[in-house]
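Please review this pair:
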Amino acid sequence: MTTIVAFGNPVYDEIITPVVRTDGRVLSGCSTNACLALSRLGRTTALVGRVGPDYADRFQSDLVRYGITPFVTLSGQTGGFKLVYDARGDRTLDILGVAEPIQIVPDIVESAVAVIVGPILQETPLDLIRTIRDRTDAPIFLDPQGLLRRFGADGRIEHFLPAEFASIAPLCHVIKANEVETKVITGIDPRIDPVMAARRLHETGCAIAIVTIAEAGSHIDDGKRSISVPAYATEARDPTGAGDTYMAGFLHAYLTDPDDLFRAGCTGAATASIWIEYTGPDAPITLQEVERRVKVLLQQ
């Protein structure tokens, strides 16, 4: 039981921020970014998802290059977004492509040390998550972003709370949500009351709830403790994937010591801080640099 298995469709995104712009589309995605960060922290990872024939060859070679084992089936098209950020960090999402829902649960999940469910846009339905839960006792770490997205009337992405979320949450050991997702799920703005927001997220049925609030840090609730975690101060050139890589860092530390949630949160924050200093999948995350930044956060 050494592999972390992640479920979620990869995407190839176009990203525009006030300081950077990608040259065409770059590899991304919630589960993809988590695997990229975890592999650089020394963890063995596998990614389950769907990709279209337009990017299938490139994707296979990308994952081999990054040391991630792919379990990928063909879709009609490859998923992707055009992400445009303003100076405040708010963003719009325009659809470049949508891949179909994941339909396979590979046997490797039965020996996984942990499972990430990180959908981009409705590709991990309740039945899939139930099947994963039935086939492994490993903890499931859920990033709910893709469960809470749908097409709006203007063709852009809007957020909503699906009825099946109430059945999904208790199947998961950890749920990590950003401030928008937390407000959709709980009705509470975590910038106003992060303690109660994390508590309400925990009350959906998971063992550990994490609320990330960008530069304001994060908050963790396990039903017994309420833990505030600082952010690592840095320049966010591209915030895309910050939450994905926070989850990776948290998971890495949690598997080492599940009782030290503050250190796990600091490891998540440190990992994400490196990621957002760059654009695309090649951020130079190293265990040594993550640990250096963790020590800084532990002293705050």
The longest strand covers residues 44-51.
